[in-house]
Specification:
CATH topology of the largest domain: Structural Genomics Hypothetical 15.5 Kd Protein In mrcA-pckA Intergenic Region, Chain A
Distance between the termini: 39 Å
CATH architecture of the largest domain: Roll
CATH superfamily of the largest domain: MM3350-like
Number of strands: 22
Shape: globular
Number of domains: 4
Structural class: alpha+beta
Number of helices: 11
CATH class of the largest domain: Alpha Beta
Strand content: 15-25%
Radius of gyration: 27 Å
């Protein structure tokens, strides 16, 4: 049963002909208030969820629900949604709420922590020239951390962090760092909202003009336009096909570069896209950056004239490895070879401090047969093995061993941590890129057209949008597709498998985008994937890229959904296990 939401104190007279809606979003049960004031074009509750997540600073890691006039709305992106309890949040738009004079409602995020927000439609206004919507115009205080226990847990967290005498001070500081509850960066929020435009505007809202370009139309980038991520790479003259119209102010367009454009693009462009996990064949552009073009016109692309390599970031393992070899951020990681091993060895001779304590995993024919602690005393003689790489002398009790440096891990507080981690990461990463990843992995998947957000526009009949019952906000109910035997896993589900009790050096994530599809898989390697910042950031990018909503794992099991008891056809393959094709999963019926 939805909890009652207090309505606006007095009726409002909002002009429905104005295209920009001004909202105030306030986290409930927190004092002083945490709030944001946001302006957006007409959008569905589903898209408003995205806007709230970005403007508040949440990670979109949990389920959510809108409570409007006693009804509950959420995204129909998972088969776990009960259509009898929750209604489709794509069906209700801000314009309809204003028409029905419903100006205040509740947005709840994370049913465990229960972060309840009051959303109030304050006004409708004219768009300002040169402003890209949605935008945040004001706000106060930082977003609470995820999974901190809701409003009451957050209050205790702030108290513990700022009171050195508090019994939980050390633990909370270790987990959450120097949390500043008063921090609010308006510019950063708007940068994040600007980046989110490529996912918004999925359907045309009220009071928006016609689009200048349609899907499938050939367009060209106007002279002087540069890449939004790489300002030293000009896009003037690049030719593309429109793949999606983003109904926003100003209008936006997702485009796909033509084959002849990609053939003429600078090599540095592809290197940067690969390093940053960006799709090199696609881009998002604003209406004023494009013009119509005929396929008969010659291709005249602007080319980079003054490429400026980005400064190396010592927070990025890739860049730390590049620094070892004197490379720039635009250079790929060097391949593992005898000369590069020798160069890395020379670097480590100058930086590693011996002896040091380490955890050891028996991942090679050298060293002890059992995992455990040992003391690394120095480089072995000779220090290089053609197969295992850099070797070290180690001791466990009275026994002496030769162990590959890539099989040991040191504590984070040890001064050797980054050096050992980076060497192992380089060794594994190069092997993964050149190894047996196979046709199932993301970088080898052929391009395929699909709707990332699951918002299939043909499901909606726009002429029926205004055909509401007087006491309802719904269109006709959608048919909810039940999973078939060939697709038992919810679309947008991720499965993680590895690490396990034998190794912590590899982890794989997979996502299924539509029924019957093979999963797209991505692998990361590090000394310890559970603590690697590089791995953590890479997984976050992967999840956001494919709109992951649910992770198929539980405490103590980072395995496939079939290990969670999910069912799939007896005798069939688990679609998340490329290394176990043809073998029956443990969760299938006997």
């Amino acid at each position: 049963m939805a909890r009652k939401v207090p309505q606006s104190a007095k009726p409002k007279d909002l002009d429905p002909s104005l295209p920009i809606y001004q909202l105030k979003i306030t986290v409930r049960d927190i004092q002083p208030s945490i709030w944001r004031r946001v302006q957006t074009t007409d959008c569905s509750l589903s898209e408003l969820h995205d806007i709230i997540q970005v403007s508040m600073g949440w990670d979109d890691a949990h389920v959510h629900v809108f409570e409007v006039e006693g009804r509950q709305y959420t995204d129909y992106g998972s088969w776990d949604v009960d259509p009898y309890e929750y209604r489709d949040s794509r069906r209700v738009r801000l314009s309809k709420l204003v028409e029905k004079r419903c100006f205040r409602f509740v947005y709840e995020y994370d049913f465990g922590d229960s972060w309840r927000h009051t959303v109030e439609i304050e006004n409708t206004v004219q768009p300002e020239p040169g402003i890209r919507y949605p935008r945040c115009t004001a706000g106060k205080r930082a977003c609470p951390p995820e999974d901190c226990g809701g409003p009451w847990g957050y209050e205790n967290l702030v108290e513990a962090i700022h009171d050195p005498a508090h019994k939980d001070h050390g633990e909370k500081v270790e987990w959450y760092g120097g949390l500043d509850p008063e921090q609010f960066d308006l510019d950063q929020v708007n940068r994040d909202l600007l980046s989110s435009r490529r996912w918004l505007g999925r359907r045309r809202g009220k009071q928006l003009p016609e689009a200048s370009f349609g899907e499938g139309q050939l367009v060209r980038v106007k002279p002087g336009v540069v890449h939004s991520r790489y300002p030293d790479i000009p896009l003037g003259g690049w030719e593309a096909t429109v793949t999606r119209v983003a109904w926003l102010i100003p209008m936006g367009y997702q485009v796909r570069w033509t084959e002849r454009t990609l053939a003429a693009a600078h090599a540095i462009y592809f290197k940067r896209c690969s390093q940053d996990d960006l799709e090199s064949a696609e881009h998002f552009l604003e209406e004023g950056e494009l013009e119509a073009v005929s396929s008969e016109q010659p291709l005249e692309m602007e080319q980079p004239q003054d490429l400026a390599a980005r400064p190396l970031s010592m927070d990025d393992p890739d860049d730390r490895v590049r620094a070892v070899f004197g490379l720039t951020s635009d250079d790929p990681l060097p391949q593992v070879s005898d000369p590069t091993q020798q160069q890395f060895l020379g670097f480590l001779r100058s930086h590693l401090s011996f002896p040091f304590e380490a955890d050891y995993w028996p991942a090679s024919s050298l060293g002890p047969k059992e995992q455990g602690k040992l003391t690394v005393e120095g480089f072995a003689d000779p220090p290089l093995d053609p197969v295992e790489g850099i070797q070290c002398r180690a001791r466990r009790g009275t026994a002496e061993y030769r162990v590959p440096l890539s099989t040991v891990a040191v504590a984070k507080e040890d001064s050797n941590f980054d050096y050992v981690e980076d060497y192992t990461y380089w060794l594994w990463e190069c092997e993964a890129r050149d190894g047996e990843a196979g046709a199932y992995f993301e970088e080898d998947i052929e391009d395929e057209e699909f709707d990332l957000d699951g918002d299939e526009e043909e499901e909606f009949d726009e002429k029926d949008e205004d055909d509401f019952e007087e006491d309802d906000f719904e269109e006709d109910e959608l048919d909810v597709e039940e999973p078939t035997a060939e697709a038992r896993f919810p679309i947008g589900t991720v499965a993680l498998y590895g690490p396990d009790d034998k190794t912590t050096t590899k982890i794989v994530a997979g996502v299924i985008l539509h029924p019957g599809a093979e999963p797209i898989l991505k692998r990361w390697v590090a000394t310890d994937v559970l603590t690697s910042l590089k791995v953590s950031r890479g997984m976050d990018k992967f999840f956001k890229k494919y709109g992951v909503e649910r992770i198929g794992m539980s405490e103590g099991n980072m395995g496939c959904p079939h290990e969670e008891g999910e069912d799939f056809p007896v005798g069939g393959d688990c679609p998340f296990c490329p290394y176990w094709k043809g073998k029956q999963g443990s969760g299938a019926a006997e």
